[in-house]
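hey can u check if this looks right to u? its 203 residues, i copy pasted from the old doc so theres a chance i mangled smth
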Amino acid sequence: MSERGKLIVICGPSGAGKSTVISRVMQTDPSIVFSVSATTRAPREGERDGVNYFFVSHPKFQSMIHNGELLEHAEYVGNCYGTPKAPVLDSIEKGKSVVFDIEVQGAAQIKARCPEAILIFIVPSDFSQIEKRLRGRGTDSEEKIQGRLEQARRECARAKNYDYVVLNDDPDRAAEEIRSIILAEKCKMANRKHYLNTEVSVS
């Protein structure tokens, strides 16, 4: 009997380094896959349908919402984003653990629909690193940086309800912590109690 995969939701403020850590996790464990979101925005140069996103029209996206095909969805800067349910559940049944990189509102929606989802919050051990990383990008105005920092404070306040906190001072170490969490969750009694069946079948 193959073991089911896990649904892993990873959140964290802008500047926490989520994308880098997730990339490191997947590089070393082929049983962990990334959840591909659907979006109504146009593809950017180099993006591929079904790899970076599922690119759909606004009517198609609304139809997906109406038919209950999304685990979570939200609107951001005029475009819709959401997580198709079917590919996620299919991967989990095949023993793949599916990792989500989404914001806290989407995480709450997934937890409500899938109580077994594992919520992980990524943050550096020193909050000042968030500001340092945001400024280091050199892409945002001072106003936008201050807005991101305020949002980060709100997100950290909501993280108290998460299952795990992973510290990202070193992406490799953070990735190892996430892999350890997934392994520990798979080893829980609820997932493996069927192996304790001591009845001997007689052919």
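The radius of gyration is 19 Å.
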